[in-house]
Amino acid sequence: MAAGRKALTFVWVPFVFSVGVVSWAILVASMAVLATVILAPAVRQVKTAERQRNNMQATVALLDEKIAIQKRFVHAAVTSPLLMERLASRQLNIENADQEVLPLGAAPRDRTVQGLIAQALKPVRPVAVAPMPWWMAAAASRHTRALLLMLGCAGLLLSYVLGVRVRAKPTVATE
């Protein structure tokens, strides 16, 4: 059994370190570098589009909430004369003699309906977008892009040269 292990190790070690395997490894690595360089700008554009989409979704959610508040306010203002009177007195800064004003702190400066609605809105934050991986961000950079393209092309050329050299070995013809 021990002899079998040595034989397998002896057979596989030259294969692992052969020029053909190195040529394929260089080819795969070069293709991975070139794919990263080609895909990195597209990934950056996708991330930018995701950020814009999330910002727009947050804006739409805020506008939907604002519309809902305005609808409730309009419905309440139309049906309640007391609310209409209070709203008019608040906007015109009129105080009735039969009302007592209790100061509860700093009064809001904006006393318009829009200001009141803005005070009632809940803050909406857009969903954060995951950043690009560091290696893809580096591949998207102008400065490293040319270097990575040259390295990838050089790797393809080296893989080809090593592969041709392996195939160009003369074979001994047996008669």
In words, what does this structure look like?
- This protein has helices at residues 2-16, 19-79, 81-92, 113-120, 134-140, 142-167.
- The chain is mainly alpha-helical.
- The chain has one domain (16-96, 107-129, 144-167).
- Helix 2 (19-79) crosses helix 3 (81-92) and helix 2 packs across helix 5.
- Residues 4-13 have low confidence and may be disordered.
In short:
The chain has six helices and no strands. With 175 residues, the chain is mainly α.
Layout of secondary structure:
Elements (H helix, E strand, L loop, with lengths): L1 H15 L2 H61 L1 H12 L20 H8 L13 H7 L1 H26 L8
Helix pairs in contact: 2-3, 2-5, 2-6
Order of helices and strands: HHHHHH
How does the helix and strand content classify structurally? mainly alpha
| Helical content (DSSP H or I, runs of 4+) | over 70%
The number of helices is 6
Count of beta strands = 0
Quickly count the domains: 1
List keywords for this structure.
175 residues; 6 helices
